[in-house]
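S.,

As promised, the nicotinamide-adenine-dinucleotide run. Input:
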Amino acid sequence: MNILVTGGAGYIGSHTCTALLKAGHSVIIADNLSNSKSETVRKIMDIADKEVTFYEIDVTDAEAIDTIFRKHKIDGVIHFAGLKAVGESVDKPLDYYYNNIVSTMVLTKACQKYGVNRFVFSSSATVYGDNKVPFVETMGLLPTTNPYGETKAMSERILTDIANANPAFSVSLLRYFNPVGAHWSGLIGERPNGIPNNLMPYVTQVAKGKLGKLRVFGNDYLTVDGTGVRDYIHVADLAEGHVAALENLTEGAHVYNLGTGQGTSVLELVKAFEEANDVKIPYEIVDRRPGDIASCYADASKAERELGWEAKLDIIAMCRDAWRFEKNYKGKLRK
Ligand code: NAD
Ligand code: WQD
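Predicted complex:
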């Protein structure tokens, strides 16, 4: 199939492009490079030893999207493009609502105009709010504490309404848990701007000596050791989940958790990282981070049942591959 991948130069998108190419699909990337670099497109082609078509465009630009749909026979869309920093979304809500909602509407309008009925959307476990773990797709969604989470919940509703109104439209709403790790080649991985907010990139930069020590946000949660528990998923497994979702789309809107079903605490992750890579991660316990929940992990059985997909790589592989990518990276921290 010819797949339009928006945000394909980004972290999860780039890994998914390699998985799509490996599975025999053709890839057209649309990315405005607001949080990525064009050299990643070259690396995707190097890894897959195949060509991809790349458009440096903004997905909210309806004319630019129309041109792509007119020029190529698109069979399906995977929509990754979006802004994703939870804290920033509180300071710049309009940027987040505009970018993340308008992009979804522009793309689905083009899909309707050109009769494209396969759509896969990047949602997030954040839409569950502070529900009871494990999070299961049938749960009622609780309000999130930030505009970013709201954009995901709203996009899910928009896509579901479109599928309900148009029986031919098939959409998979993929709720990712905590994607970490990098491609085994060390060529592509996560490159956050400035000081990382997320745990794994922070840990890799402590390991590299760019940051002094990890601050563990709270050790008084009701969890195995008091630190926050998350369902970390290797980005390579997540990428395969997209191929499975695309290839098993059926009419209507379908929600899938993409996680491992395993919870790992902050201190367990630190220990796994030290064991996997034979490095020391100094840390200190500090106050809880506002907005954090104690535990977040998936019931991942629906994806296994309906898509035939399950995560295969464990926390050691996630830590090993994240570190290989960071170790190889020669660039400076981007400001
Ligand atoms: P990323 O920032 O690495 O990738 C997003 C890509 O989209 C970037 O290359 C960026 O340049 C591009 N982009 C953003 N706005 C655009 C626009 N208007 N037009 C064209 N390109 C645009 O992020 P990621 O971690 O790969 O996340 C991909 C998707 O998955 C996002 O929608 C994100 O919200 C969602 N998600 C991410 C996580 C996570 O922890 N990484 C978890 C759950 C959901
Ligand atoms: C994981 C755990 C922290 C950093 C975020 C978004 C979510 C989704 C994935 C997009 C928590 C602790 C972290 C640090 C720490 N993104 N931590 N010290 O918050 O679970 O999820 O990314 O959809 O929407 O909210 O991920 O990696 O920031 O935190 O102790 O320096 O690590 O408290 O328990 P989070 P995270």
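Residues 6-7, 9-13, 30-36, 58-60, 80-84, 99, 103, 122, 124, 176, 179 surround nicotinamide-adenine-dinucleotide (ligand 1) (CB under 6 Å). Residues 170 and 252 are 5 Å apart (CA to CA).

- D.
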